[in-house]
Amino acid sequence: MTVYSPTNVALIEELERFYDDLRTAIHHVPAHNFLIILGDFNARLGPEDAPFTYHTNTNRNGEHLAALLTEHELLAANTLFRKRMGKRWTFQDRATSMRRQLDYILVRRKWKSILNAESYSTFDSVGSDHRVVAARLRLSLRVPKSARGPGPTGKPSREALNSRPTTQRRGCAARTRVEEARRSFEREGTAESQEELNGAKQQLFSTYDRIKGEELMEKVKKVETVHGERRYKESWKVINEMSGRKRSRRDSWQAAAQRRG
What residue stretches are annotated with the Endonuclease/exonuclease/phosphatase domain (predicted)? Predict the structure, then answer.
């Protein structure tokens, strides 16, 4: 997926529309599928939102990007490695020669087996004021199972959870509070406004954590239901999904038998 975000001085309505569209696109990619988002996000991330950044603080666009990363369990791959500063920036203003880190490669946390990610030191190959940002990664893919129609007790997906009106309202309210607190901090620059911004961020993160917890509880209830109905195979399937086990017990027995043989 490739994207281009409005700049940091664009109307807030335009920026919010961009992130709403991006969230919708992400929701349409199944959680077990590999997802990579390449884009000029026109956003600066600071060390409070990513491990190794070029900038020392997060700007308005960066707040929206950081919220997206948290909400969808994404990582900005080119901020995961301790590179020297000359390897971190991705854009150089032709008028002022100012350098910035605006371009990012986003991947899901479960696919974080990235070997390297960095900016190339030349513009010649693309003829742009942006550098090429590339990532090297190793994938371990499984053969997909035959497609099955969704049953009445199908597991609740993150897409379905986030599509519920109450969940959407809670997430939207938390993001709005962060945006309002950020504007207040930019106007006032006081310790109180900084504290309010930090509190808004924590509330946003807590909201996402509660949503994840609700999803987990729905899975637990499903295990109890199918187990009570003696649908043990389905019960174990849900348990394996919750625990992250990638192979069934039968697969483990077969592997052990092959080793003994």
Answer: 3-133
